[in-house]
Amino acid sequence: MTKMFPLLKLFYTAALVLSLGIPGMGQNDQRDLNVYSYWPYYGDVSNTLYQHLAEKAFAQLDHRQSQIRDLETRADWENRQAYVRQTLEEIVGPFPERTPLNPVITGTLNHEGMVIEKLYFESRPGYYVTAIFCYPENRTEPLPAILFCSGHAAEGFRSTTYQTMIFNYAKKGFAVLAFDPIGQGERIRYLDESGKPRLGSTIEHSYPGSQSFLAGISPANFFIWDGIRAVDYLMTREEVDPQRIGITGRSGGGTQTAYIAAMDERIHAAAPECYITTFDKLLKSKGPQDAEQNLKQGIAKGIDLADYIEVRAPKPTLLIGTTRDIFSIQGFRDVYQEAQKAYAAWGAEDNLEFTEDDAGHASTVKNREATYRFFRKHLNHPGPVRDEEVAVLDPKQLWVLPTGNVYRDLGGEDIYSLTLRFLEENKNEGPANPTELREKMIQMSGYEAPDPGEVVFSGRTHYDGYAIEKYLVQGSGSYYLPLVWIKPESANGQTILWVDIQGKKAAEVGGPIDFWLDAGFSVVVPDLSGIGELGDGYKGGDARIQGVPLNVWYAGILTGKSIAAVHAEEIALLRQFMIEMGVREPALVGHGPVGAEVLQAKFMGGWPDRLVLIESLEAFQSLLSDREYDARFLPSSISGGIQWFDLPDLVRYLGPDAVLAIDPVDGQNQRIQGAAEHHYLQTSGGQDRFEKIARWLD
Fold it and tell me: Residue 628: is it exposed, middle or buried by C-beta count within 10 angstroms (0-12/13-18/19+)?
């Protein structure tokens, strides 16, 4: 390889610049790094990454719709149901074997003619589910039962709204089993020193749930299995008629209701509330929701929310919605219209019902009474349907355990520990050689070698000692990547592609780019999608953790098009742009959390360019080394990729002459001590870092 720069001259130049300064490169100067300010036609481009992933989803959903339109007969729909069942098993992930529930009743209350038993059971060994079992005192025969799934209330089933619904069912002669979802009620995992919750319910789901995605399993797996085991528990109770089981829940409880009813054939009647819509309307409104509401490659495999309803046909289902819900009411109506065709194929149109009310994301009297009516009819339990006023209890009265928290009172497993076990049981030895690994990565990530598109020169500005050129380079879709190409007047003929989590901000005066400019290197600094001018525009979702909108990452998981693949394609296009502009051997630099993406891009692309990683993640495994991790590293990962490879594997395959890792960090963004023992370099930063990189490149 041609030497990058004579070391003596490089260090002399750098030292001279640092001691004397070069005109135009002082700390007080500013560089104009914005590119899109020249192109007002493009409007707001800050949501480019999400829109690119959403367009992928829309194409996949259009393909699904073309298949649904061809379904006419009952046989057609039965074939579709078989496909959906098989696909749900695949994208939800394998369930464990059934183990003893070991139920424990910790207390009993008598309240307004009802018996309320407080209990817990083990849906998996050492994995405790807290619940109440509620039924009328004057029971004389087995009752129809309702499995009640709570939405994202911190109190779980103890919230005023949910107690009102649960007690109404019991007063109407139903047995009700209401259980705490993961991360809510008495199953909250992230507590402060005083035992109070540190995170909201959606973050309780998404923080560990994202680790599950990383390991290659949909976090919904854990939620659904809790529900299936809850049905197992109902089957053990003499108060329950096992042929008359219903399920309902609102919001996140609606999600659980839809999942569990689709995957457990013992559920006879289901009534999901304030959740059902279509993915196209969801993606155009609130976007993907918290972790368990997304199934790994769900959209890519042809699954929309309507499939959770249609796979049940002709079993009774009631769709419950509100006109101002966070889940699009138009999507809700679209699901009903599509599902009607499935039920019509069985001649069971009356088994699919629909109710909506003018309200926000809430349970209304009208919708509750429609739900009571539905279950009375389809669980063969006639009687009044009026929504009664009931006396709700203080949440502490419904605590199953002394402190109101499983992990303080019983300990046991959580999603994090179960995820680690899943990964251990599903770890592969890995492909035998780099070629096989490259093929596996491409298949898992959704990477597609891009064809170069349009390049738009967007101006040049001269400063003292250097010039800045601006370009728009078409990305892997219809969008454009803004970049600045900074060229010193005394250039040494070498060019670096600098990819940074800060994007072009890394090229501000006083930043890390200055060392290279001062030494005569030309530096290309882009904004990848989701970064800089193309970033911080996504306002939807409910899983913004440490400032990172993980809902965008979930969009990639749904579509099978990872952010790592999108960025790898963009880096490939930028590299090709530089080559076409006359750069013979660009050097690649990945700085910060995006370093892993540059490494993966180089490996999948098979490029000869040398790569420097600065403060980059040492291994994806380190994101699983603790319940607490830096969420900025997650979008660089490929869901399930860690079953086959980790970043050190790529470094090993590429070899020490191809990759230099400087000051690598762990999953908490802490420098790894003793990294030199693992063939990495540690520096004190600044000039020391620059000199060690330059020496390696030379």
Answer: exposed
318's enclosing H/E stretch is strand 317-322
The answer, yes or no, to whether residue 18 has pLDDT greater than 50, is: no
| 287 Rama class: left (phi>0) / alpha (psi -120 to 50) / beta | left
The per-residue pLDDT for range 450-494, each reduced to its tens digit, is 999 999 999 999 999 999 999 999 999 999 999 999 999 988 889
Nearest C-alpha neighbor of 465 from the set 490, 444, 433: 490
Q: Quote the CA–CA distance of 403 and 450 in Å, as a whole number.
A: 56
Task: Give the C-alpha separation, 267 to 154, whole Å.
Answer: 26
Which helix or strand (DSSP H or E) is residue 205 part of? helix 201-215
How many Cβ atoms are within 10 Å of 106's Cβ, its own excluded? 14
CA distance 656 to 250: 55
Which own/partner contact pairs does 190-196 have at CB distance under 8 Å and 24+ positions apart?
Answer: 190/627, 191/405, 191/407, 191/408, 195/403, 195/405, 195/408
Rounded Cα–Cα distance for residues 182 and 259 (Å) = 15
Task: Name the packing angle between helices 563-580 and 48-69 (round to 10°).
Answer: 120
The residue whose two tokens read 């800060």 is 502
Residue where the block lists tokens 């923080």: 207
Q: Are 387 and 147 in contact (CB under 8 A)?
A: no
Distances (CA, A) of 283 to 119, 216, 539, 555: 39, 23, 12, 8
Smallest CA-to-CA distance from 487 within 461, 510, 505 is with 461
Looking only at the bridges linking them, the beta strands covering 544-545 and 548-549 are: antiparallel
CA pair distance 329, 364, nearest whole angstrom: 15
DSSP string, 426-466: H-----SSHHHHHHHHHHHHT--PPPP--EEEEEEEEETTE
With bands split at pLDDT 50, 70 and 90, how would you rate the model's confidence at 20? Answer: very low
Q: What is the pLDDT of residue 674?
A: 64
- Comparing CA positions, the residue from 106, 144, 119, 158 lying closest to residue 240 is 144
Burial class from Cβ neighbours inside 10 Å (0-12, 13-18, 19+) for residue 46 reads middle
* Stretch (H or E) spanning 588: strand 587-591
Model confidence over 367-388: pLDDT tens digits? Answer: 999 999 999 999 999 999 999 9
Question: Which residues make Cβ contacts (< 8 Å) with residue 612, sequence separation at least 6?
Answer: 587, 588, 589, 590, 659, 660, 662, 693, 696, 697
Q: Cα torsion for 590, 596, 598, 600, to the nearest 10°?
A: 160
Mean pLDDT, the chain, integer: 92
Question: Beta strands 466-474 and 659-662: pairing type?
Answer: unpaired
Q: State yes or no: pLDDT of 186 exceeds 70.
A: yes
Could you give the C-alpha distances from 360 to 321, 325, 330, 353, 357, in angstroms and in order? 9, 5, 14, 21, 9
Please answer whether residues 231 and 312 qualify as being in contact, where contact means their C-beta atoms are separated by less than 8 angstroms: no
Q: Give the number of other CB atoms < 10 A from CB of residue 113.
A: 11
CA dist., res. 133 & res. 47, Å (int): 46
pLDDT at 26 over 80: no
pLDDT above 80 (res 11): no
The mean per-residue pLDDT over the stretch 230-239 comes to 97
Coil, strand or helix at 212: helix
Amino acid sitting at position 698: D
Task: Write out the two tokens for 395.
Answer: 């949440």
Question: What crossing angle do the helices spanning 201-215 and 550-559 adopt, rounded to 10°?
Answer: 40
Question: What is the DSSP annotation of 49-109?
Answer: HHHHHHHHHHHHHHHHHHHHHT--SHHHHHHHHHHHHHHHHHHH-PPPPP-----EEEEEE
Q: How far apart are CA 452 and CA 162, in angstroms?
A: 55
The token pair at 652 is: 């090993």
